[in-house]
Design a protein that fits this description.
Elements (H helix, E strand, L loop, with lengths): L6 H5 L6 H13 L4 E7 L10 E2 L3 H8 L5 E4 L5 E2 L6 E6 H4 L3 H25 L3 E4 L10 H11 L3 E2 L2 H7 L9 H7 L2 H11 L6 E4 L6 H12 L3 E6 L3 H4 L2 H14 L6 E5 L6 H5 L5 E4 L1 H4 L7 E7 L2 E2 L10 E5 L6 E5 L14 E2 L2 E5 L2 E2 L6 H12 L6
Parallel strand pairs: 6-7, 6-11, 8-9, 9-10, 10-11
Antiparallel strand pairs: 1-5, 1-12, 2-4, 3-5, 3-17, 12-13, 14-15, 14-16, 17-18
The structure holds zinc ion.
Zinc ion binds next to loops.
């Protein structure tokens, strides 16, 4: 059997740290069940990220719909900064106490992956970024991982089931195994071309047996005009100066009249590699860097009890609004009251923590993955990476 929870276990509150279950028991026996507000907040972001993308809301909402609580949250795909609450739950504490572990898990990992993908896409610019990292993670999570990689900015995902979830065709080239089965890159490519539908782009993997330069020329001669791209997955033991390998291959292909052939690169690509390779690469397959992205360490903290501000040490008490100026982009965290706030630029601030759930009733529309992706790309367009 797979060592994963059943979705029903999550909804039944079984994916909980045991101390919440014990807390619930104590509160029930003592008849204590205050009306509280609790917020989800990251006091710092991983790897010194200056901002992050809020993701995982659709799944969190699916879980929270089963509970008699009210929720305000940022829209999925919103950029946030440390100390800004991204979500707030209002309800009787006993009603959601055992769900803290699961709700955090749903947004912490998703936000980390979406943010990492957004950073890669910003670095790559117009060049393709494809999620290739499903194989590094438990397969049951592949659609979740790739959905968040996609909404963060990846142009495509590689897993069939992930493609179904996001409503896009999965993308892929060919594995080394196909070439090894044919004992020849060119023969494998010809078979690929013969068997697969014409709508699929012909991309040859060229690091299996021979030097990249000569293999590039072999596949270019084998397929000519039909060859769309070559993929360099050069093993790290042979990589030396990866940029120089690409540069030399580009030169040789160009000089022989194969300027149309694009270059895809894959294999352990890190953020810092992208600006170096970007002048020569037309696309990236990003694996572990995205699928194993650092999580955003949100915490859930009670900050109001029976309408009165109260929080633990190190946290700001009271329910909050997060405001943003639609004109100049200035942001502000203020107490959650009726006050009007004007930006120094004279424009009225807008709330980005908005009501999304009222005791089972969903108050916002769920957007498609492609719309969320466009929203994220617009939000991060002008932001610095450091
Ligand atoms: Zn302003």
């Amino acid at each position: 059997m797979f060592h994963t929870a059943d979705p029903k276990d999550i909804i039944d509150g079984k994916i909980t740290d045991v101390y919440f279950e014990r807390t619930l028991k104590i509160l029930e026996v003592k008849g204590i069940n205050p009306l509280v507000k609790a917020e989800f907040i990251a006091k710092s972001l991983p790897e010194d990220w200056p901002w992050a993308v809020f993701a995982g809301l659709e799944e969190a909402l699916y879980l929270m719909k089963h509970l008699p609580i009210k929720v305000r949250a940022m829209k999925e795909g919103t950029v946030f900064y440390h100390y800004e609450p991204v979500m707030e739950i209002e309800g009787r504490y006993q009603d959601f106490c055992v769900y803290e572990t699961a709700i955090l898990g749903l947004i912490c990992q998703a936000s980390g992956i979406a943010t990492k993908a957004a950073r890669f896409k910003k670095l790559a610019g117009e060049k393709l970024v494809i999620s290739f990292g499903a194989r590094r993670m438990h397969p049951i999570l592949a659609p979740m991982i790739e959905r968040n990689a996609y909404i963060g900015g990846c142009d495509g995902v590689s897993v069939v089931k992930s493609g179904e979830l996001i409503g896009e065709d999965p993308m892929g080239t060919m594995p080394h195994a196909l070439i090894i089965c044919f004992s020849s890159t060119a023969e494998a490519l010809k078979a690929y071309d013969e068997v697969l539908e014409p709508r699929l782009r012909r991309v040859a993997l060229i690091d299996t047996f021979l030097d990249e330069k000569f293999e590039c020329l072999n596949v270019a001669e084998a397929l000519g005009e039909k060859l769309f791209a070559v993929r360099f997955d050069t093993p790290s033991s042979r990589r030396g100066d990866f940029y120089r390998i690409l540069e030399e291959c580009r030169w040789e292909l160009d000089i022989k009249g194969y300027k149309h052939i694009k270059f895809y690169v894959s294999g352990g690509i890190k953020e810092q590699d992208v600006p170096v390779l970007n002048p020569l690469a037309d696309g990236y397959g990003i694996g572990t860097s995205i699928s194993n992205a650092p999580v955003v360490d949100y915490a859930m903290d009670i900050m109001e009890v029976e309408g009165k501000p109260l929080a633990k040490r190190g946290k700001w008490s009271g329910s909050k609004r997060v405001l943003i100026c639609p004109k100049c982009g200035a942001r502000k965290i203020v107490p959650n009251n009726e006050d009007n706030h004007l930006c120094p630029c004279r424009k009225k601030f807008e709330d980005i923590l908005i009501p999304i759930l009222d005791k089972g009733k969903q108050l916002i529309k769920m957007e498609s993955s492609s719309k969320l992706r466009a929203f994220v790309l617009k939000n991060v367009k002008d932001l610095p990476l450091e």
